Amino acid sequence: MSEVLDRVPGQEAAVAFLTQAAERPHHAYVMAGPEGSGKSIAARAFVASLLCSEGGCGKCRACRLALDDRHPNVFVVEPEGRDIHVDTVREEIWHPAYRTAPEPGRKVFVIREADRLSPAAADTLLKVLEEPPADAVLLLLSARAHELPETVLSRCHVVPFTALSEAFVVDALVAEGAEPTRAQLAARLAGGNLGRARRLASGEDGLRFRDAALSAVAAAAAGPPGALEAADLVLAAASGYKKGLKAELDREVAPFLDERGRPEDAYRGAIRRIETRFRRRERRAERDYVDWVLLGVSSLLRDRVAVATGAGERVLMNPDLPPDGAIPVLRAVRGLAAVEEARAALAEDLNLNARLVLERAFLQLATVAA
Fold this sequence. Notes:
Blueprint: H1 3-6, H2 12-21, E1 28-32, H3 39-51, H4 61-67, E2 74-77, H5 86-97, E3 107-111, H6 119-130, E4 136-142, H7 150-153, E5 157-160, H8 166-175, H9 180-189, H10 194-201, H11 208-221, H12 224-243, H13 246-253, H14 268-308, H15 329-348, H16 354-367
Helix pairs in contact: 3-4, 5-6, 8-9, 9-10, 11-12, 11-14, 11-16, 12-14, 12-16, 14-15, 15-16
């Protein structure tokens, strides 16, 4: 039995399969299911089970590091921009797959959003799948597994994950100690994504993006000059979030430093990977936080429209906040459409000027007559 896999909620079939697989693992798996279904939580638990001498006790050093994506034998690959590039796969999967692991035991490679592999990257990964090292396990996570090349998919065991209902996410958060209203709020704002809902429910910092959204809506509702101020507020919040990430890097490398705070020789490669992953996360951080704030804006405007059309409080995305009745309904509708359009544009093209996109969206909210 794996203690860490037993903690994965709502995916009994997938957990049962992974628990058996951890004893005699295949060389590659695809964890396939919708966003928020718990694939990342299950992947970390499976990795811990593979690396723990007791099969995933959840308490030892190997489990703690694996559950935090910091184990030296774990190689995590994520999209850089829109795609996962061939150089990334070559440097972080192909080359290390055939080298000795930093620590005794298996090497595990986790590819998040694997459907974003470029054609050249997929071809390079295929070479590893065709001749897998005996001590390597690859995990591909995807919400669109059908978009993976058939040559890749056919060489992996597919582990399906099902969508989690909002009620299930709320119950899980309450069972973990969250206050019911906060749990409901977190589940709705997270769109049923359990991992994201946990972060939102874990403390006041989890809802800081919504505070920025409230300020931006209030500024834009005051008129066109306020729309420019709203864009400034969103960008300032995103910049502040990015600056706060530095402490995370220090925490992640701490286990691999000696008593003088210098990298231990055996872990220099692991530290470089952590630093590389951190730089990628840092580059995405501002754009991701802008999206979170815009999601908060959308939820506030949606609640205003819902109440105006006679919907009850039970459908509100922000059950702890009364909708701003000062915003005319037509303005809220047009503003909601503009904000969602801005979110889509920023997700599609990372080279867009975020300030101009935000100003355009908030001007729609500010200038439409009732």
